[in-house]
Amino acid sequence: MSTVSRDTMMLTTPFHSRVEAMCDLNDWGNWMGYTTPNAYFDVELEYFAVRSTTGVFDLSPMNKYRISGPDASRYMDRLVTRDVSKIGIDRVGYAIWCNDAGQVLDDGTIFRFAENEFRLCSYQRADDWLAWNTLGFDVSVENVSESIAALAVQGPTSCTILTLLGCENLNQLKPFGMAHYTFEGHPLMVSRTGFTGDLGYEVWVPPETAEALWDRLFELGHEYLIKPFGSHALELARIEAGFLQAHVDFLPAEDVVRVGRTRSPFELGLGWLVHFSKPLFNGRSALLKEQEQGSRYRFALLDVAGNKPAEHSFIMKDGKVVGTVTSAAWCPTAKSNLAYAQIEMPHGAVGDELVAEIYYQRELHWTQLYAPCKVIDGPIFQPARRRQTPAPPQ
Is 296-376 in CATH node 2.40.30.110? Predict the structure, then answer.
């Protein structure tokens, strides 16, 4: 379970003693009330651990909810936009959920353990929203965040290290699959999931085994150059892989103050998660109307000329501002300057040529430049090992 740091009065995870010992830079951030490292020793070296060997990230602050009961499956189908019946037992599915206006509240992952037993993992705390939606359903929703510790173990040698830990036949686990093991007499679950776009896994254990798990992983992974990585390196990896981040690429509809600042699944490029084959789900009517009438915005992935990240830039077409950048980075493995942007319709189709108005500061001097950019049809970094089964040996 989590504890409170006397120095910061913030929550700490079950791995904190080990994380703190390795955080040479003493660079900390706030993840939903938890103190977590932005960087341990060097952002780029942490990033390259994920891409070249194995990186370990403390996932424990993620909100986790156990959803069970006779109507759990029906409840989940009402809650999220995707068809939950397509998620098999011991499988994981990516999902989003909307308010009645069809605006995205959050995204997350659904773990299915049985016909009517799920775990929903989300960035935002969703206790009230989940409780309100139980009306009319015979279902139990329990916040189990503090009873589960989790690590993301990501990179080319991640399967090898976890196999040494005792996770037999892990190389046979398909993407979005789950496997169950024991560690020091306690349950250990491994899912082939992650936020880096690489071969990788997430490991879920009771808090009392957290420190022992960390120690054993780093002992077994020493010869494989295992390293911890913080949120800044994760940000690089997820942008390169094409993943969205709440509060960065979109604002949860429950949090916004100004009208028009929320986004629908279609406006975030997540229309593939909206399954109208289901008879009813939150936001269905509004999303059907949007599909018929068209969206306000288009989410675009941009390949930007040069090597200056287009953070917080305006996007222009024929001298007119038509959008804004939400995320941007020079991505070392892809060797590309990538940006995500919200573009006003009808602009932003694949192949559209735009201009990013970039401002950057060097030694107290601000420079403005206009960088050509082009809308591309998907992330540039998509290594075969990400989906390869059996997972390639390293």
Answer: yes
